Amino acid sequence: MTNAASLGVYVHLPFCPYICPYCDFAKWPHRRSAADRYLRALEAEIDATPPRKAGTIFLGGGTPNAYDASTLASVMQRLRARFPAPGDVQPEISVEVNPELVESGDFETYRSAGVTRVSIGVQSFDPVEIATLGRRHSVDQVAAVVASARAAGIGSISIDLMFAVPGQSPGSWRRSLERAIALGVDHVSTYGLTVEEGTPYAGWRLREPGAFLDADREADLYDIAIATLESAGFEHYEISNFARPGHACAHNANYWANGQYVGLGVGAASFLDGVRRVNTRDLEGYLEAAMSGAPIPGEAERLLGTKRAGEAAMLALRTAQGVCLQAFKERYGIDFMTYYAPILANLTADGLLEIDDDRARLTRRGRFLANDACGAFVTFE
Ligand code: SF4
């Protein structure tokens, strides 16, 4: 049993074999010397962080498996010693992997280190879309990676897919979804492409706006994802996430439940004792501070009262359960229906939100427009 309500630990491993043209994450091209230095800094940060019990650990990136499997296993062991699971809880330990970098025996090494879940960055099974996204895996490679994770005893296998890719059609999107389902994975995350300023994709969109899908076509693709995955037995448990029964990601569920988490590594975010803190995205600044034992530079904000409640509402509405009105009142001391009445009136009038006796949930249209729909709760005073 994993425990979604307990602390989660996120570790950012920011190196990638190459940089995808749409990416806005904290990431750098993989260089052996930089990766070794980063590992030492990360170990120092782990050792300097007060120990706590944690129900979930998540190694994300970047591309965690730009490091070899034995290195990742030693990071996991260090983390498990610093953040042991509470009581007899079986911790959920996840690793993101790039399928191109998986080597024979990797999953056995991960499994021995306690990994229970892998998330495979696939994005598409269509060779043209894979090339458009600047990725280099083959369809057969992904199938082999899923099979070897399963053979090694990894209990939960997830695939990331992307929609609204330039050139993508409803048919090619449906085929990618069906391919993931046919591989027998337990979990699928579907993300709409976001063009971030400063990326090569932003320049492409400026030169050729017609190559990118408009909101209506993107909404159609989102609907196809919901219909295809739900009819295959996946539960749409969060805006972007679908799981077979028992395979929802406990680590992310803890975020959406406004739970506490520790973030380690460059650019990683923490939320502890009401304070949200984000480590600097400046790699050199991070390395120097961590190696010298100084506090990691970054930004911190205390979330109190209505600010914390607004954040919690925004996160809860991302999930299929939505906001439980009674639990919200007990936890935040705020009557959801009364306090947020002006926002609720607008959202229900626009068909984005539905409210029954004890819950508020986004409609299907509201889920597609979730950032607009939920953002209002965060800024409401
Ligand atoms: S692999 Fe992920 S983190 Fe790395 S460049 Fe591509 S999208 Fe960004």
Give a written overview of the molecule.
The chain has 381 residues and is of the alpha/beta class. Helix content is 42%, strand content 20%. It contains 16 helices and 17 strands. The protein has helices at residues 32-48, 69-82, 106-112, 127-132, 139-151, 170-182, 200-207, 215-231, 250-256, 283-292, 305-316, 325-332, 336-339, 341-349, 364-368, 370-379, and strands spanning 8-13, 15-16, 28-29, 56-61, 92-97, 117-123, 156-163, 187-192, 235-238, 241-243, 261-264, 269-272, 275-279, 298-302, 323-324, 353-355, 359-362. The strands form four sheets. The protein has a nine-stranded mixed sheet, sandwiched between helices. It has a three-stranded antiparallel sheet with strand order 12-13-14, with no helix packed on it. The protein has a three-stranded antiparallel sheet with strand order 15-17-16. A hairpin with a 3-residue loop joins strand 16 (353-355) and strand 17 (359-362). Helix 6 (170-182) packs parallel to helix 8 (215-231). The longest helix is centred in the first third of the chain and has 17 residues, at 32-48. It is globular. The relative contact order is 0.11. The mean pLDDT is 95. Bound molecules: iron/sulfur cluster (SF4). Residues 16, 19-20, 23, 25, 27, 61-63, 121 line the site of iron/sulfur cluster.
The total strand number stands at 17
Number of separate helices:
16
Rg is 21 Å
Backbone shape: globular
Give the integer mean of the pLDDT values: 95
In this entry the ligands are: iron/sulfur cluster
Largest sheet: 9 strands, mixed
User: In order across it, which strands form the biggest sheet?
Assistant: 9-10-8-7-6-5-4-1-11
Strand fraction band?
15-25%
- Secondary structure class reads alpha/beta
Give the low-pLDDT segments. Answer: none
Percent of residues in helices comes to 40-55%
- Intertermini distance: 39 Å
